[in-house]
Amino acid sequence: MKTIDKKASSTSTIFVNGTISNPNLNQVIRAVSTLIHSIIIEDIKEGKSINTNSNFYSFCEDKYILENLNKYEKNKLNSYRKITSHKEII
Questions:
Q1: Is residue 82 helix, strand or coil?
Q2: Do the Cβ atoms of 24 and 18 come closer than 8 Å?
Q3: Integer distance in angstroms from the first to the last C-alpha of the chain?
Q4: How far is the C-alpha of 38 from the C-alpha of 83, rounded, in Å?
C-alpha cells in the first residue's frame, strides 16, 4: 500500500487515500466483503436461508451444488457449504 507523507498544516488539510472520482478499490472491496460476511453470519444465527428467487441466490453454494450435484463428492458436501472466515474472504 502506498504511503503519503503527512505534514502538519495550519489550513486543516485532510489527507485521503481515495475520492469519489478515484476510489481506493482495496478499501471498497474490504468494506463490501465485511458487510456481506456479517449479513451471512447474522442470517445463519437466525436460521434464515436464501430464497431461490432472490437476487442473492447466486452467492449461495447450494445453487452450484444442486446444479452440478454429480460433480461433487457426496461425503464432502458439508465442507463445500462451509462458511469462510472474514480473513478468507478478503
A1: coil
A2: yes
A3: 15
A4: 11
Alpha-carbon gap, residue 26 to 1, rounded angstroms:
9
The type of residue at 38 is S
What letter represents residue 84's amino acid?
T
- What is the total residue count of the chain? 90
- Measured between alpha carbons, how far is 83 from 72 in angstroms, rounded to an integer? 17
Q: What DSSP string describes 23-74?
A: --HHHHHHHHHHHHHHHHHHHHHTT----TTSGGGGG-HHHHHHHTGGGS-G
pLDDT in tens, the chain (90 residues): 566 666 665 666 666 677 778 888 888 888 888 888 888 888 888 988 888 888 878 878 788 888 888 887 777 777 777 777 767 766
Q: Give the single-character DSSP code of 11.
A: T
pTM, full prediction: 0.53
